[in-house]
Design goal:
The chain is mostly beta strands and 129 residues long. The protein has one domain: Lipocalin. It is built from one helix and eight strands; from the N terminus they run αββββββββ. An eight-stranded antiparallel beta barrel has the order 1-2-3-4-5-6-7-8. A hairpin with a 2-residue loop joins β5 and β6. It is globular. The N and C termini lie far apart (46 Å).
Length: 129
């Protein structure tokens, strides 16, 4: 029994922990770029297509914030796949039950439009590092 436990301990020490890649997400969104989004994601699937998910904090930075900036939590899931010299991103972000989707070319940033259940064509600039 002790030999089995020692063997298991040695194997786990030699193998070491598996580290999934973690990335920082920053973005601005809204018709006037009035929302600042910050968070981190962890890799959930590796390979040719990498998948990530995590939580975000969305902070309203527009001028109409009377009692300080409004903050909301959000969740994001996305896939990044290589396509020639560039990468493609397909993502879903959920905030307060509202689902938004976007996709396109990702270099250092993604700049484009996202479609939400309650609004279409919402401008978004997203950076994943």
């Amino acid at each position: 029994m002790r030999t089995l436990l020692l063997f298991a301990f040695i194997c786990s020490a030699v193998a070491g922990p598996v580290h999934a890649q973690s990335l920082r997400v920053t973005a601005t969104t809204g018709y006037l770029s009035e929302w600042e989004i910050i968070g981190s994601v962890a890799e959930t699937a590796a390979g040719r297509v990498k998948e990530y998910s995590g939580s975000l904090t969305a902070r309203h930075i527009g001028l109409c914030s009377q009692d300080g900036p409004e903050e909301k939590t959000a969740a994001i899931r996305f896939r990044i796949s290589k396509s020639g010299p560039s990468s493609q991103i397909r993502a879903t972000m959920t905030m307060n039950g509202t689902v938004c989707t976007f996709g396109g070319t990702l270099s250092d940033t993604y700049s484009g439009l996202m479609d939400c259940a309650d609004a279409k064509g919402v401008p978004l600039t997203l950076s994943v590092k």
